[in-house]
Amino acid sequence: MSSYQAPPNGWRTFLIVWITQSISVFGSALTFFALTIWLAQVLYPNPEQKPQLAFALSAVSLAFALPTVFGAPLAGAWADRHDRKRTMIVMDTANGILSLFIMLLMIGGAMRIWMLIPIVAVSALLGTFHGSAFDTSYAMIVPEKQLPRANGMMQTIWALSGILSPAIAATIISLPALARQGLIGGWVGQELVKLQNGTPIAIAIDAVTFFMAAVTLIFLRIPSPIRSDLVDREGKKKSIWADVKEGALYIWHRRPMLWLLGTFTVANFVGSPVEIFVPLILKFNLAADWAARGFTFETALALINTLFGIGGFIGGVFVSMWGGLRSRRVYGVVVSLIVAGLAQVVLGLSPSILVAAGAAFFGSAMTPIMNSHSQTIWQTQTPRELQGRVFAVRRLIAQFTWPLSTALAGVIGGLFNPGMVIAALGAILVVFCVAQLFNPYLLRVEDRAYMEELAVKAAAEKAEVL
Fold first, then answer.
1. What is the sign of the dihedral through the CA atoms of 311, 315, 318 and 320?
2. Is 228 exposed, middle or buried (0-12, 13-18, 19+ CB in 10 A)?
């Protein structure tokens, strides 16, 4: 890995890809926000349809989550076998076409929930293949010393889209209503009044951003590592499942990486329910406080969500400008998780909407810092030709608790005080991560020689057994 040199204009290439992918992520955020509005206001608008709406929202969320998590190993193996730039172009184009298909179904009034669920699942799977190719591509074009900064910039994409997309999507959705009121005239107004709402427009914008990202990639040089191990000793071509196994064994034989992965598995389990519990905390724990301050439930929820987004954005900008720790990056992961866990405890126990909003800000600000340091560790400790397979298995193990804890949250939230549950989960994260500060395996995750020694030892033990 140390002998690899990024292309001379690699940082400039990364900036171009980062900008276009940021726009595409923003377009996708528009779509998901618009789909939520469409389900609630168009498909199931009546109060007596609450059960159907709840099922639809859960089904769409799971349709996105399951392919994202469980399709990751296959997508990662694919990224290591095929040209990553071409993979990104094809996936962006396919998702753009899929978005146009959704738009046409909505304009024609033909879209139903049973159609939307498989479409979202396919879109999520395409995004998983694209993400595996992209995550492993910028390690090929960014100089190693710039990787922490690049990872920090990647973190700002999601936070910024979370801040901007709801307001912009809401404005786009309202355009037909404004046209019917005579506030938008001319040919544009005449076309807009034909739509029930502006959801198809938001989805069309998403399609354009996908196509723009795909076209931009055509003109950029993004190298892929050349593999020499696709044929085994017997002359047979290795199966893609053998690649998945190889990615899993790479992690398994390097105990420090396994501990780092386990840390994020715990963090995802205790952190994923927050977005489900926040509305419950506002409604049942903080109602008296925000009502006394003149808030409505909607404005209180908007305050919390906005500060979540702003915190993530500022954290991403901070780590991008700072560049992260140059060594002992594991502390950048563990300490950030401890702060995030403490913020989650405050969020759950706070009797004040303002204190809860502050906790949301600080907890969210830690996310890009921890993720940037973690991503840099994985990028610098994993050979580039293995990153697709290893990162995909890493994503599967770290995120499989996401749908699990999301499903459990719906049950637990109805049985217990949601604030106490969130606080207890945050406390678990704090205790676990404090213990990791004394874990001799985890603290050596950046000692490449030590990890390779562990891998050689594991391989020798396996050979003795055989």
1. negative
2. exposed
**Which of 273, 270, 205, 296 is closest to 429 using CA atoms?**
270
d(CA 28, CA 99): 9
State how far the alpha carbon of 6 is from the alpha carbons of 32, 154, 389, 412, in Å. Answer: 36, 18, 21, 49
Residue 193, helix vs strand vs coil: coil
Distance CA 237, CA 221 (A): 28
Tens-place pLDDT, residues 395-429: 788 777 767 776 676 567 667 788 888 899 999 99
- Where would I find the H helices in 39-82? 50-70, 72-81
Question: Which segment of 59-68, 252-261, 308-317 scores lowest on mean pLDDT?
Answer: 59-68
Q: Show the domains of the chain with their CATH numbers.
A: 1-221 (1.20.1250.20), 239-466 (1.20.1250.20)
Q: Assess contact for 89 and 217: CB atoms under 8 A.
A: yes
For the entire predicted model, the pTM comes to 0.72
